Amino acid sequence: MHLRIVACLLSVTLLAGASLPKTGPLPEKKPTEAETSKPAEEKSEKDAPKTDRDEKPLPIPDHAKPLTEKPETEPEPVLTIEPEDSKEYDACLAALKQIGATFKEEKRIDDGKGCGIDKPLTLDMVLPGVALKPEGKMRCETALELARWTKEAVIPAAKAALPSEGPLATINQASSYVCRLRNNGTTGKISEHARGNAIDIASFTFKSGKSIEIRPRDEDSTLAGAFQRAVTATGCLYFKTVLDPGSDAAHETHLHFDVLERKNGYRYCR
Predict the structure, then answer these.
(1) How far apart are alpha carbons 152 and 99 in whole angstroms?
(2) Which residues, in sequence order, are bridge partners of residue 131?
(3) What range does the domain containing 101 cover?
(4) What ranges does the record list as Basic and acidic residues composition bias (predicted)?
(5) Is residue 66 part of a domain?
(6) pTM of the model
């Protein structure tokens, strides 16, 4: 009896065990054809990871911005007429009179753009018996240095080199005061002629009527060549700038003298 019961229970157990599925992980669901063919970019934006493009761009600092416009150019310096020191001017006039120059004081010149002379004068006679032709307007300092150079350097050189031509009669000038840029250029710095600081010497005329014209004479072995080289070299003892025909093409026919003050007393002579 007991054995029959046990056998029945065993049969029930075996039948129940045959209907139960095997244990273990469930297989993954295979994607459908539609899902596999969907392009990646068609995914929902909300599912896409956030990138830097989603953030607002940071402002570019000023120093890193590209230049879209040309920077403003600095304004050109305002050129003014240098005022004369009254004491120095009076002392210059006294020295000019003492050396024997003939001149006339003029009204202040102001031609704009820095051109002008605070206390100009018109020089007629450099020394007694030595005329300046044509007469020229300039500062007193320019006139005084011209007179000193003529007396102490030009006349002695003329006596040594050209004694048969008689005394020096005329200094022929090519330019004194004139409102212009250097070398008559259209751009560049203002000329010292425009400030009354300069004079250009074109030639020297003697009592005999002979004239010595300024021209390239470095290789001129005549006494006229020696005279020109002598007066050119001594010019730098009186003027701050001396330019002769050997300087450049712009000075092939004259000597340029000026009294432009430079730092540390530097003089430009060539």
Answers:
(1) 11
(2) 125, 170
(3) 86-269
(4) 27-73
(5) no
(6) 0.71
